[in-house]
Design goal:
The protein is α/β, with parallel strands linked by helices. It is built from eleven helices and ten strands. Helix 7 links the parallel strand 8 and strand 9. Bound molecules: adenosine-5'-triphosphate and magnesium ion (MG).
Length: 257
């Protein structure tokens, strides 16, 4: 399973990606978490201490190689398998999750981040279905990664959505673009739900737009406290309402719901 997590800025993508990755790892899966945000934040949400998280280096630029595809055309390949990338270049997070970073913005005015996006795309392309490696990719806010096709080879797209109009509008756009890329399973995840009214708003939009809602994550002070103290929600309280709900979503994804 290759999950990509997208949505509007601040909707909770990193929180969902982190708890999902650790829940899958706790269920015995081998998980590679990919931080595909040039402003990387996934490490701390996974439970890597902030002072270590700031030292994690991005994936090197030389992982992409030219190759000839089966039809004889030039294509982009990877210098090592996703499994090797995970083992050799990944940083270990709690529960055995391995983390790699797409690469950030070290200097201003130095141009685009095409190589980073191409590397993430190639990793996802080369994780084959039978390789016992699951990926959870935390995308950058907004839609650019979809225009670039970075998550093209994901098989699940989660759109994290808050109960307000602009967040819902972003989810609708993400869903359309994810389907255009051919991602087979596209789901909305409602987040920061404070009551029945919030849930109703999201359900109405999902029904009208034909989006499948895979779970509703409550607003949870444990997530807020985790953010405040630079820790993983799971390490503050592994049984908090949001953590439990995201763990249930992991189960639903695995069972193919
Ligand atoms: N279920 C929740 N309950 C309460 N607060 C939450 C919840 N989910 C996320 N948050 C808070 O919302 C903020 C944004 O969360 P997060 O960083 O996961 O979002 P994001 O979509 O990855 O943001 P960005 O677009 O900046 O990458 C954080 O302060 C986080 O603590
Ligand atoms: Mg984020």
């Amino acid at each position: 399973m290759k999950v990509a997590v997208a949505g509007k800025g601040g909707s909770g993508k990193t929180t969902v990606a982190a708890v999902l990755a650790r829940s899958l790892a706790r269920a015995g899966r081998k998980v590679l978490a990919i931080d595909a945000d040039p402003n990387p934040c996934l490490a701390v949400s996974l439970g890597i201490p902030p002072e270590e998280a700031t030292k994690i280096e991005a994936l090197p630029g030389n992982l992409l190689v030219d190759r000839i595809d089966p039809e004889g055309k030039r294509a982009v390949g990877l210098a090592m398998s996703p499994h090797e990338i995970s083992e050799r270049l990944g940083v270990k997070a709690p529960d055995g999750v391995m983390l790699v970073l797409m690469g950030g913005v070290d200097h201003a005015g130095t141009g685009c981040n095409c190589a980073g996006h191409a590397t993430v795309r190639a990793i996802l392309e080369n994780v084959s279905g039978d390789e016992a490696l699951m990926t959870v990719t935390d995308m950058e806010a907004g839609l650019e990664h979809l225009k670039r096709g970075t998550p093209r080879h994901a098989d699940v797209m989660l759109m994290v959505v808050e109960p307000y109009y602009k967040s819902l509008e972003t989810a609708v756009r993400v869903a359309a673009l994810a389907s255009e890329l051919g991602i087979p399973r596209v789901y909305a995840v409602a987040n920061k739900i404070r009551g029945a009214d919030d849930e109703i708003v999201i359900k109405e939009v999902c029904d009208r737009q034909g989006l499948k809602l895979i779970g509703s994550v409550p607003y949870d002070e444990v997530v807020v406290e985790a953010q405040r103290s630079g820790a993983a929600p799971m390490d503050i309280d592994g049984n908090s309402p949001a953590v439990r709900c995201i763990a249930q979503i992991a189960g639903r994804l695995e069972s193919g719901e």
